[in-house]
């Protein structure tokens, strides 16, 4: 039989104040102390992990404009020349911009540097930038703290940007979407003019093109506004520069905002702006006090259908309480997370968030930054400027070089008559290079022909330009060329090109919405790039009719005149509530012009 007193249990004679009871109390106290120490250690470790960045970044890529450097302390002359050449390569990859991560190994490990090594490394990087004609801007510094006993080490993120030369600034196009009265034009007026709004729309007056827009306060046409950043990351706008030419001369990076209409009756204008002007990004403006209303969902769906990366600005936060703003943000987050969107919302609340958002937004199509700001009080307006300053281009220099090697192709989006200049066309150069004095052909006409013309002068962002490169938007003066022969949707191409025109084409489509059924004989307005024309459904391959959500290959026929299309081009069609998207899979040349297509010279006519 076991003696309970020897086993440490309480004997009946000792009671709760006996010796064994005391030892048991001490044991439990010690265990509690050990547990609390372990808990404190876990909590302190957890807190430290919250403060520090993750120990790894993605491994360094050989291509692209991001470079990792562990340290740049007192390099030899040979090493310095090598580093400068490497910087030149990264700037070329980023079309004039590069991001250096100092204190990071090539495999992405965040090692960090002491304060003295960091100062020396930044000094070396500045010398490298000066050698290749660039400036550096410190975006942020972060502490790397893995062990309490070690000295504090930091990693630095630095933006290197070329000083502008011969108008070769980086140009990004941002389409501005959102419901009517959400504050789109006012926000652009504040960004580009450099003055806050008075709460009654004063900032937007300079953006309007027509009298009825000023009277109603509603945008009905497409207008362009520019915001520049110099090589040091400082804003360049009309507050310090009198003309657009001065902004272009001072800027290393240019953001061209395409202000689109918010009202539903101007939807065709908005779609034309999205399909024709090839925006790099889209900015969806949502009013904090009304939330997701009107055309907001439709504009979001259009941008996603055309695969344009989108970020969101919640405006007018000065008009409502913090709770209302948070409710609008939560409403946006719910919509973005839905299966149809599959986006990851990222609310930007400080400069560090803005830097992270800009980099992740360009790398991943699913990231959607959300800004909350006011055009009246200026709250959080600087965060949007930081984001736009760092936002990298989607295409790298290699892709642009490949486009520039192709034959010239210019899309005609706007046509003007300017006194003392003559006929002027505005649009985007899709491929090749265009110079002053170059001879091109424009078409197709209603008969499917192309007409010869000569390019006079070129203007880009309202300032003279001698050479236009692929991907850039500009206006071209055509002298005394008859304006009545031109229309939106035409292309100006090299005479060496044999442009394929068609009256009928086939496309693989998805019917997004239709009230009844989509069948042969249906008429829809088709948008393909800068082409906008009504087309009739000739046949549906393998099916008699389509319902919402179904896919098919459909043959369309333009009802007015032939158009120039490219295989694989994105297509969007609509008619009332009917909407669908797809891409061009086959071109069928018009039978009456078949013989002329065989002999390209017959297609070229003098106007």
UniProtKB/TrEMBL annotation:
DNA-binding among keywords: no
GO molecular function ontology, one term from the record: GTPase activity
Stored Pfam families: GTP_EFTU, GTP_EFTU_D2
Region (Disordered): 1-62, 585-607
Keywords from the named record: GTP-binding, Nucleotide-binding
Biased composition (Basic residues): 26-49
SUPFAM superfamilies cross-referenced by the UniProt entry: EF-Tu/eEF-1alpha/eIF2-gamma C-terminal domain (SSF50465), P-loop containing nucleoside triphosphate hydrolases (SSF52540), Translation proteins (SSF50447)
Domain Tr-type G: 169-397
InterPro entries associated with the record: EF-Tu_GTPase (IPR050055), EFTu-like_2 (IPR004161), GTPBP1-like (IPR035531), P-loop_NTPase (IPR027417), T_Tr_GTP-bd_dom (IPR000795), Transl_B-barrel_sf (IPR009000), Transl_elong_EF1A/Init_IF2_C (IPR009001)
Composition bias, Low complexity: 592-607
Family assignment from sequence similarity: Belongs to the TRAFAC class translation factor GTPase superfamily. Classic translation factor GTPase family. EF-Tu/EF-1A subfamily.
Protein known as: GTP binding protein 2b
Protein source organism: Mastacembelus armatus
Lineage: Eukaryota, Metazoa, Chordata, Craniata, Vertebrata
């Amino acid at each position: 039989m076991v003696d309970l007193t020897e086993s440490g249990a309480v004997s009946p004679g000792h009671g709760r104040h006996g010796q064994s009871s005391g030892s048991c109390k001490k044991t439990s106290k010690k265990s509690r102390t050990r547990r609390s120490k372990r808990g404190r250690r876990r909590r302190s470790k957890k807190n430290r992990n919250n403060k520090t960045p993750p120990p790894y970044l993605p491994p360094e890529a050989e291509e692209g404009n991001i470079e990792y450097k562990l340290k740049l302390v007192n390099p030899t002359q040979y090493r310095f020349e090598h580093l400068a050449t490497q910087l030149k390569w990264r700037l070329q990859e980023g079309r004039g911009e590069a991001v250096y991560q100092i204190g990071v190994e090539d495999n992405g490990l965040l090692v960090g540097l002491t304060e003295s090594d960091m100062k020396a490394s930044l000094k070396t990087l500045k010398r490298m930038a000066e050698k290749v004609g660039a400036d550096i801007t410190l975006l942020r510094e972060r502490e790397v703290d893995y062990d309490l006993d070690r000295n504090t080490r930091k990693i630095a993120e630095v933006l290197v940007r070329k000083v502008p030369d011969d108008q070769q600034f980086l140009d990004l196009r941002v389409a501005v979407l959102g419901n009517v009265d959400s504050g789109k034009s006012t926000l652009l007026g504040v960004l580009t003019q450099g003055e806050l709004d008075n709460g009654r729309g004063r900032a937007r007056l300079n953006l309007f093109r027509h009298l009825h827009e000023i009277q109603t306060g509603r945008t009905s046409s497409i207008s362009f506004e520019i915001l520049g950043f110099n090589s040091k990351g400082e804003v360049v706008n009309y507050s310090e520069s009198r003309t657009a030419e001065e902004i272009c001369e001072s800027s290393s990076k240019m953001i061209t905002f395409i202000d689109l209409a918010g009202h539903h009756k101007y939807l065709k204008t908005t779609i034309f702006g999205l399909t024709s002007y090839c925006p790099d990004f889209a900015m969806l403006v949502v009013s904090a006090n009304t939330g997701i209303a009107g055309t907001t969902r439709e504009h979001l769906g259009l941008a996603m259908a055309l695969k344009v990366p989108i970020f969101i600005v919640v405006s007018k936060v000065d008009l409502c309480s913090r709770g209302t703003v948070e409710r609008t943000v939560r409403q946006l987050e719910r919509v973005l997370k839905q299966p149809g969107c599959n986006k990851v919302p990222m609310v930007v609340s400080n400069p560090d968030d803005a830097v992270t958002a800009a980099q992740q937004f360009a790398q991943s199509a699913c990231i959607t930054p959300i800004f909350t700001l006011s055009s009246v009080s200026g709250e959080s307006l600087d965060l949007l400027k930081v984001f736009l300053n760092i936002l990298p281009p989607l295409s790298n220099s290699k892709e642009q070089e490949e486009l520039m090697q192709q034959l010239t192709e210019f899309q005609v989006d706007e046509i003007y008559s300017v006194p003392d200049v003559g006929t002027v066309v505005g649009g985007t150069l899709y491929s090749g290079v265009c110079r002053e004095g170059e001879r091109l052909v424009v078409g197709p006409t209603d008969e499917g022909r192309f007409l010869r013309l000569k390019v006079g002068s070129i203007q880009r962002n309202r300032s003279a330009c001698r050479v236009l490169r692929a991907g850039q938007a500009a206006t071209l003066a055509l002298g005394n060329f008859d304006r009545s022969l031109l229309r939106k949707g035409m292309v100006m191409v090299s005479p060496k090109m044999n442009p394929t025109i068609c009256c009928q084409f086939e496309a693989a489509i998805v019917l997004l919405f239709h009230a009844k059924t989509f069948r042969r004989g249906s008429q829809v307005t088709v948008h393909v790039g800068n082409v906008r024309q009504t087309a009739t459904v000739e046949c549906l391959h393998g099916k008699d009719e389509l319902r919402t959500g179904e896919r098919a290959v459909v043959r369309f026929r333009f009802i007015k005149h032939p158009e120039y299309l490219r295989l694989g081009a994105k297509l969007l069609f609509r008619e009332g509530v009917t909407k669908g998207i797809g891409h061009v899979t086959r071109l069928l040349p018009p039978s009456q012009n078949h013989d002329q297509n065989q002999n390209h010279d017959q297609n070229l006519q003098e106007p």
